[in-house]
Amino acid sequence: MSILTAIFQVILFGMFTFSASLKFSRSKSMVQHWNEYRYPFWFMDVIASLELLGAIGMLAAFWAPALMKYVAVLFIILMLGAIHAHLFRAGHKPIMAINAFFMLLFSAVLIFM
């Protein structure tokens, strides 16, 4: 495992753990965004659960490296959905999707490392 792989794993673990916690806690900003996306609130729990599962999987990939590619694919799917939600469902400016874009990029890099 390279240092860059480990750095991306730690970043993804942290970002998706944080994102899941915002969704599970129904933070004011997340509720506002979810209203703009026009998704039902039960779907926020589904997404948060997938994010948390992925974060745990990314952490476990330090000991079981074969998990990393599967988790990276999950994150790519989630981030494609996030980018779609920001740009098309909510009509946000592209800068609002920059975090999702970088998490997508980091996940894609892990697939090919």
Report on this structure.
The protein has 113 residues and is mostly helical. The chain is 80% helix and 0% strand. It contains 5 helices and no strands. It has helices spanning 3-24, 28-37, 41-60, 67-89, 98-112. α1 packs antiparallel against α3, α1 packs across α5 (98-112) and α4 runs antiparallel to α5 (98-112).
User: What gap, in angstroms, lies between the N and C termini?
Assistant: 9 Å
Please give the count of helices.
5
Class computed from helices, strands and strand pairing = mainly alpha
* Apparent shape: globular
Largest sheet: none
**Strand segment count:** 0
Helix percentage range: over 70%
Strand content: under 5%
Order of helices and strands: HHHHH
Low-confidence stretches: none
Rg from C-alpha positions?
Answer: 14 Å
Mean pLDDT: 96
